[in-house]
Specification:
eight-stranded mixed β-sheet; 15 helices; alpha+beta; elongated
């Protein structure tokens, strides 16, 4: 309960700040200046506390909880429209950064990246603008998220209406995380599925000296192909990508890059194999460690299940783009609050079986 109280008080404290309000309202000179039944802080807390029932019922519960007079659903809706979604994005990111996260893998935080798609409300406008293809009948969103898999906390996300490039989103999140005051101080290992590999991403990871484990298609680079055809299970290869190679492969890539990458062959239970690449040192991380590390990425997949079926992230309470942005970041904030308060029911059995320290 202490963790939950601390979490809520941080939100309340931020929502009380004049600078926070002025930053995140649409008109700082007019919005929430006069005394109204629905203050800026009330609107923030009401939006976060919405359990996605009928708005009139949610408003009635909110008023009863705070012992307020009657407030109409329309008034709440109007108040929400005055707040930019960036308020909830900042609340999500700052509360996530302040959650106590004590579980580590050999001294590293383990951050998994993955994309999640879902349906938007089927309004005529959204259906026209954000269908995945001409044959689709529902508009979609595509979010890319960063998740601390051992501590079960979302730390950052990029939300897109319609489809999105996971390569580009991964680059954006990399820059955001690396400049964050909290995350740039702690050693991390980042896990990527095979939808993310790109030369631009690898170049940025090398430039930031960021540790990673990445599942790659066998056709990703010629050096990977050669490793895949060999009998090696764990080998370091040298990659050099220059202007001549770029022209021959017609790859969208800026400049040149040259680096060593460790390739690891992982056998699956069904007899198939996958290729992982990493820059983790062989002396510290064995092939078995790397394989187990990548298996931890499954934690973000199970978190998506909770987001969709327990937090109901796809049940938007708004039909405007700004309101949907609000709902999305509120859902991530609520997930983190629940995880902080009571956790989610999946144990790190793979860590226990392998006898790997998590402190």
């Amino acid at each position: 309960m202490e963790k939950g109280t601390k979490f809520i008080r941080q939100i309340q404290s931020m929502a009380k700040e004049k600078s926070f309000r002025e930053t995140h309202v649409k008109n700082a000179q007019k919005d929430f200046i006069r005394t109204r039944k629905m203050t800026f802080q009330d609107t923030i807390m009401c939006t976060i506390g919405n359990t996605k029932g009928p708005l009139a019922l949610e408003t009635e519960k909110f008023c009863r909880k705070l012992d307020r007079g009657t407030i109409s659903a329309a008034a709440v809706c109007k108040a929400r429209q005055k707040i930019k979604y960036t308020a909830f994005k900042e609340l999500f990111e700052k509360t996530a950064a302040n959650i106590e996260r004590d579980k580590k893998f050999c001294g590293y935080r383990i951050i998994a990246f993955d994309g999640m798609k879902g349906e938007l409300p089927r309004t005529p406008e959204f259906t026209e603008k954000y269908k995945f293809s001409s044959r689709a009948d529902a508009p979609i969103f595509h979010a890319i998220l960063a998740y601390d898999v051992l501590n079960k906390v979302f730390i950052m996300s990029e939300f897109n209406f319609g489809g999105a490039s996971e390569h580009r989103a991964a680059l954006n999140l990399l820059e955001e995380i690396k400049k964050h005051e909290v995350y740039k101080r702690e050693p991390q290992i980042w896990l990527y599925d095979r939808g993310f590999p790109s030369l631009k991403l690898l170049k940025k990871l090398v430039q930031h000296n960021q540790k990673y484990v990445m599942r790659v298609p066998k056709s990703f680079l010629k050096e990977i192909k050669e490793f895949q055809k060999s009998e090696y299970m764990d080998k370091t290869v040298h990659v050099k990508y220059d202007e001549k190679r770029k022209a021959a492969n017609r790859v969208d890539f800026d400049g040149e890059i040259e680096f060593d990458v460790r390739c690891i062959r992982v056998k699956l239970k069904n007899g198939e194999e996958e290729i992982l690449i990493t820059n983790l040192e062989r002396k510290i991380f064995t092939k078995q460690n790397i394989s187990m590390l990548y298996q931890l990425r499954w934690g973000i997949e199970t978190s998506f299940n909770y987001l969709k079926h327990s937090i109901f992230i796809e049940e938007f309470t708004s039909r405007s783009e700004n309101g949907i942005f609000q709902d999305f970041y509120v859902s991530l904030l609520v997930y983190n609050f629940v995880s902080c308060l009571c956790g989610f029911q999946d144990e790190d059995n793979s860590l226990k079986k392998q006898n790997i320290r998590t402190k």
